[in-house]
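From the shared-data thread, chain only:
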Amino acid sequence: MSMVKDFKAFVLRGNVMDMAVGVIIGGAFGKIVTSLVNDILMPPLGKLIGNVDFKDLFVSMNGKAYASLDEATRAGAPIIRVGVFLNQIFDFLIVAAVVFLVVNRVGALMESRMGSTPPPPETKECPECAETVLAKARKCKFCGSTL
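Structure, as tokens:
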């Protein structure tokens, strides 16, 4: 029973819930980025290069020539899907750029809110007895020496 209670406490902690929400939003964002790459960016890029459809780019490993990726797949040929790999690289680069921008902006926002200098310490150490006293103190409350 204790293990169930511990697991429930673990799952309901704030940072675990935040992480779960982040994973869900990240998955949805990944689908949007994949659609952006496959449906928006790659078709014009393929058109510029010479009417190339990137998802149909492949290399046949058996030395035979195939008219399309579909034909090579139906023939059971071992293939390297170069176009799919390129699409995944573009996906990664876009996600990495967005994550960089978000982390960069959040870091700048946190720095501006907190200020660039850390607050002064609230305590200090007495040089005579090494006890911790308030930073504003002029005499040590432990040994009576002047600070």
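Residues 118-147 form one domain.
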